[in-house]
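Subject: Sanity check before I submit

Could someone independently write out the structure tokens for this chain? I want to compare against mine line by line before I put it in a report. The sequence has 234 residues.
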Amino acid sequence: MHKILVIAAHPDDEVLGCGATIAKLSKQGHSVYVLILSKGKAARFNNNQKKILQKEQKILESEIKSANKIIGTKKVFTANFPDNRFDSIDLLNIVKEIEKIKMLIQPNIIFCHHHGDINIDHQITHKATLIATRPLIGESVKDIYCFEIPSSSEWSFVKENSFIPNVFVDISESINTKIDSLEQYKSEMKSYPHPRSLKHVKSLAKINGIKVGLQYSENFMLLRTDRKSTRLNS
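---
Independent answer below. Compare away.
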């Protein structure tokens, strides 16, 4: 059985990026943990709206618990880095937070953001993850997968930053679990045709699946592997 750590910048990224895969792996008996680096919401409020922000963040904390319970996450860890301002703090601080959780869990598989996402927090999370999991002697992490986030991965129009998947996970039996989980994030999800709408998320999974002969698929970029790990579809 695998120990898996999903590293996400914001609440709901973990479900948007790999929620159905988490549900599938959890059902198979693997232990899946989630680290969310920001409490979220802060970028939407001014400094004089702190009370409103605190109230909204409490709602979001409840949504995190409900959403992750549905997909079978073993435990969710949260940090408090500034929402959409990861570039305002030392990268080393984020690296140390990831290292702390990594040392506690000793995962052999990690899922994280794609480097080309338009969101700066996603970019920095990706970079910090690679630094925290350098393949030195004794490193527990063997495989690193990058996921795509609707409204971020597809909006970076620079060719070099394109999300080009090379791993396709059959989520035909867990796509509805992902949608049920995202429904818990009522304060984060948007109305169709926004990319972060329930309808689009399911449509994207269907389109991704059709491309590789599946009903539904979550797609990933395998960034690093020791070539010995069990395939995600097994």
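---
OP: Matches mine. For the report I'm noting this point. The two ends are 11 Å apart (CA to CA).
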